[in-house]
Amino acid sequence: MVSYFFIFDSVNVSRKKKIYLLLIPSVLITIGIVIFWDKIQATGSYRNFTYFLKNTDFSKLKFTDHSTSHRLYEGEVILSNFRESNFFEKLFGNGFGSTIDLSGTVDKTIAGANTDIHNVRNIHMGFFAVLSRYGLLGLVIYITFIFRMFFVCWKTLKKPNHYSIILGSLYVLILLFDSLISFPHMMSNFLFWFIAFMILLEYKTMNRQKLDYDNRVE
Fold first, then answer.
1. DSSP state of 11
2. What pTM did the predictor assign?
3. Euclidean distance between CA atoms 120 and 196, whole angstroms
């Protein structure tokens, strides 16, 4: 929410207030980190983050942590299946209930979370999940939807709106980014689709009001 005021709101928040909004939380966060550093180090989030950094070579884009490695392995399996598919399957995919064989994964928790490791439905990365289930046609729709919602949310945030619309736009943007690495978080989230629909309606209303205003001016 602070980011919204700092980037978009130029009416209700002056430049001086924006500096305060940026400075004060930064100072408080820094103080909190110093005071509670021992407790922060004991959290799972900190351990997972440091584990990821220790097992990542950013210069070579090489990821050896189990979570990222498994996602990349899913992508390799799906691309291999895609190359071996017929024209119809490449265009329309294998269907909503299709599965993939993840028996070669390095992440052993996957075997425990699925009754049959050779037939797994859950695919994390949105690009590969859509390609596997809905083919190239579905992938075009997915990418178009993402860019469309980015554009609509950006335009909505730049206009003065009720805070519910602002929060909704930010929520949609976060889930869109998240879907790229955790696709089920978006697809199975009824609240996301409801809010996305409301944002699209709000954008349509904004355009209609602008058109009516332009017609009156003329």
1. S
2. 0.74
3. 29
